[in-house]
Amino acid sequence: MTTKILIVTGDAAESLEVLYPYQRLLEEGYEVHIAAPARKKLQFVVHDFEPGFDTYTEKPGYTWQADMAFSEVEPGAYAAIVIPGGRAPEYLRNDPELRKILKAFFDSDKPVAQICHGPLLTAATGGLEGRRVTSYPALELDMQAAGASFQDVAAVVDGSLVSSRAWPDHPVWMREFLKVLRATAPVT
Fold first, then answer.
1. What is the SS3 assignment for 109-129?
2. What are phi and psi of 143, to 5 degrees?
3. What is the pTM of this model?
4. What number of other Cβ atoms are within 10 A of residue 7's Cβ?
5. Which residues form the DJ-1/PfpI domain (predicted)?
6. Structure confidence at residue 3 (pLDDT)
7. Share of the chain above pLDDT 70, in %
8. Three-state secondary structure call for residue 65
9. Radius of gyration of the chain from Cα atoms?
10. What is the mean pLDDT of residues 137-147?
11. How far apart are CA 44 and CA 26, in angstroms?
12. Catalytic residue among 33, 47, 117, 170
């Protein structure tokens, strides 16, 4: 039986933050499923920086079919979870089904990889209290309000929680996540 990894996301997720871990985990030999509020074609976005702008810009990105709805997820069937950023976490944190899924991963101390705005989801479950994390730097105050110690570095490993700032940090983030994953949930 292949070890399964869950990615939770929705419309307006950052394309690279969904597809890079998806492909990297497949390459490693894991079975990867994408869950969203509903089984549907998701519209991802591309965040980039333009000269003269105070913040990032957003453009339409790739589309991708969700494998399942949050209501269909059995957390016990998955060895780890990946939480991409983009705008999706801003509204997904209000989804009670998703909060139940995330709580199950934290309660079981299973590996959790979060990036960019993804920590807004774990903050909504109380999963960041007393933890060391990073996120998109603009969320520093949100991370502190959630009880976390914020560090503005490429990746932070706190036990089974691996966080990162944004897609430019992918190589460091996935390298650290894979160390945790190989130790706790090797490919079978």
1. CCCEEEECCCHHHHHHCCCCC
2. -65, -40
3. 0.97
4. 26
5. 4-179
6. 97
7. 99
8. strand
9. 15
10. 98
11. 20
12. 117
Structure tokens, 126: 């109380």
Alpha-carbon gap, residue 173 to 115, rounded angstroms: 8
**Apex 94 CA angle, 92 and 97, nearest 5:** 80
- 47 is a catalytic site residue: no
Contact 117, 92 (CB under 8 A): no
188 band by pLDDT with thresholds 50, 70 and 90: confident
Model pLDDT for residues 36-77, shown as the tens digit of each residue? 999 999 999 999 989 999 998 999 999 999 999 999 999 999
Cα dihedral: 84, 140, 103, 78 (round 10): 30
Tell the residue number behind the tokens 């991370």, with chain if given: 143
Distances (CA, A) of 60 to 46, 90, 107, 136, 166: 6, 17, 36, 20, 18
